[in-house]
């Protein structure tokens, strides 16, 4: 399975939802632009990222998770966003997919990166990214069982339960509670979105690029974000309005495609 369909299919389902649900046109433009940029990166980016460059990328990605704690951008005391000029990007959706892929490549550094990421999102708090870390760790454990990875998954799950209580924000139209809104437009649209979420997990896990650990970690991260969206007021990854998830999974898929 090529990396591009794994991103394009759910993103196009999301654009269809935004169009049918009557979202503002600039919402469609933002998501479509992010999709085109991500596809361009995957299609025309440098064929291979050298191994010595991948650890610095992992360090920077984890570091970006801590930026919201100091950026001054917060809602009700919750800080999850990276201010990029006039645009706010959700830090977890933007960098956790790449962290999942890169953490699967190294034993010690990968586990340290997941623990550091969990600390960052626990302080924000961000239950969705916490569940994504849980899913990534579970994916790594399934692909290559190790007691430390299992402990990280368990710790991330417990932390996520705490964050679900402390970190819920009001639902934003066309971003969260999308299944409920889509069902009001068409029951088939809601079913299509649910199928797209489940299908994306399968597409990511079944990629031909990368190692089993990378694929399962990435699929697990998406499953974690999706579960958060289904049980709480949290952005629907690749479906709802927002460039963060599209750019984040585009970068992660590029990294998988450029592995060697």
Automatic annotation (TrEMBL):
Alphabetically ordered keywords of this record: Membrane, Transmembrane, Transmembrane helix
Annotated TM spans: 27-45, 57-78, 84-103, 115-141, 147-165, 185-206, 212-231, 238-257
Superkingdom of this protein's organism: Bacteria
Name this polypeptide is given: Cell wall polymerase
The species this protein was found in: Qipengyuania pacifica
